[in-house]
Amino acid sequence: MGAMPFYTPAAGRNVNRAFFNARSKAAWEHGHRDYSGTVYEKDEVTLLDEPKRPLPQAIQRAEELIEARDPRFFPRSGPAGALPIEAGTAEPSWLFFGLAAC
């Protein structure tokens, strides 16, 4: 059993709703099974107080945090991280990221 990084953008009226939307989509695309390697594996989310970024820069920041083994998101059983992103949608958007069992 290993872990792989995931980077999942999602929109919602707030971060919790967007997290629900991201998990629901991952479950629909990958099934309701354990070890999917997706955001579906996460039950909690930690919102980072950082400025909005375009998606490519948000992914780069998430990669930096994962590579640094930021204690807010480790071990892999820890919560997902959330960075606010500029997505051009009517609802606010976030990038959910972390390590998930696969």
UniProtKB/TrEMBL annotation:
This is Uncharacterized protein. It comes from Streptomyces regalis.
